[in-house]
Amino acid sequence: MQYREIVAVTGLGGLFHLQSTKSDGAIVRSLADNATKFIPSRLHNVTPLESIEIYTTGNNVRLHEVLQEMKDSSEPMPDAKKGSNEEIRSYFAKVYPTMDEDRVYTSDMKKMLKWFEILKGANLLDFSMYAQQESGEEVAELGAAEVETQLAESEKAGDTDVELVEDAEKPAKKSRAKKAATDEDGEEKPAKKTAAKKKAESAEEGEEAPKKARAKKKDEE
Q1: Burial class (CB in 10 A: 0-12, 13-18, 19+), 184
Q2: How many domains does the chain have?
Q3: CATH code: domain of residue 115
Q4: Containing domain of residue 45, as a range?
Q5: Which of 17, 98, 181, 186 could disulfide-link to 56, CB 3.0 to 4.6 Å?
Q6: How far apart are CA 69 and CA 129, in angstroms?
Q7: With contact defined as beta carbons under 8 Å apart, do 23 and 11 qualify?
Q8: Of 33, 14, 30, nearest to 116 (Cα)?
Q9: Run means of pLDDT, 10 residues per run, the chain, 221 residues
Q10: b/e sequence 65-94, b meaning 16+ C-beta within 10 Å
Q11: Would 10 be classed as within a structural domain?
Q12: Of 105, 125, 92, 90, nearest to 15 (Cα)?
């Protein structure tokens, strides 16, 4: 079980371990009593903790960044239930000074205190994976730059065997086969004459017709 698998569910207190998702909801296990239940999506929203952002006076930060500061701080943590609003707001002003007090409500601060205690009890306050991810992204960017440099050098030397393909090779189009027309009995009908051939035959017939008419007129005279 890892921090990125922990979710909050609207309408339900506490935190949950996401077991699986379905088209109509999700199956979660409570970190409080280990009870497993189905959460219908039509009634509740399931939100991963790692996707939650906190307002600050600068750019928003992920929840785990605030939780990390709470973990590293030596400032006494007030009780989420018994602590006064002033004590809670004063605590976060010291632990995370850039938190936007106008947009982060006291109820949100109390919720972060409750979640911190739950995660601490479940030993889920290790956020080193996020630092590794950031380092990995930098390494990946450096690696990509090195690859581009190597390809450029190979192309200049004329020894590159890298092939860029935009689309999968498509089969060559086959010429359309002429379909033989068939009659009702299934017998093949003679192929239709081309327009050029028809025109030539019509011209020949047109020339023969006047000749026959002139010959018949001469006989009658």
Answers
A1: exposed
A2: 2
A3: 1.10.10.1650
A4: 3-49
A5: 98
A6: 16
A7: no
A8: 14
A9: 93 93 92 93 93 94 96 95 95 96 94 96 89 57 42 38 31 42 47 51 50 50 48
A10: bbbbbbeeeeeeebebeebeeeebbebbee
A11: yes
A12: 125
